[in-house]
Amino acid sequence: MTFGQLVAVSMVVAFGGGVGATYLSTEGSVQQTQSSAVAAEVKPVSFRSYTMCSGAKRVHCVVDGDTLWHEGTKIRIADIDTPEVGEPKCSSEAALGARATKRMLQLVNAGPFEFRAWEGRDEDKYGRKLRVLVRDGRSLGDILVSEGLARTWSGRREPWC
């Protein structure tokens, strides 16, 4: 099965299950599809790898375990919470946050994935787009949770120390 066929099938399944809008990571943008008819027209595109964010200019990079920039759009990975790396409350949070960040970079660079809308909310209070990253039907956030590097998002931040 080609990437385009896989995307089309997964979008049809998502829309049929009432999941909501799906966002496909494509070259140069995040495209929202509204129906399975549109999904059938999606063409495979080249994959662009992410780097670690550094400096003031952030376009296509990973900030931490649950935040990234995709083609100039700041994305909050909506289904998980990872330890802070910017202002950790203790050394164990800093260490786990660094591991979660490194692992998220590996996961997003392992190949194409989808951005799926977070049901009921498009952005958080900081203006970040709320999205779930999905590859082959599995949330990349769930992978971090299964590896002990994140928690499933409960609706509020909880301490890591």
What does this protein look like?
This protein has 161 residues and is of the alpha+beta class. It has a domain at 47-152: Beta Barrel (OB fold (Dihydrolipoamide Acetyltransferase, E2P)), CATH 2.40.50. It has four helices and eleven strands. The protein has helices at residues 3-16, 36-39, 91-108, 140-146, and strands at residues 22-26, 29-33, 51-52, 61-64, 67-70, 73-77, 80-81, 114-117, 129-135, 138-139, 151-152. The strands form two sheets. Strands 1, 2, 3, 4, 5, 6, 8, 9 and 10 form a nine-stranded mixed sheet that branches. Strands 7-11 form a two-stranded antiparallel ribbon. Strand 4 and strand 5 form a beta hairpin.
Q: Features of this protein?
A:
two-stranded antiparallel ribbon; 4 helices; disordered N terminus; OB fold (Dihydrolipoamide Acetyltransferase, E2P); 161 residues
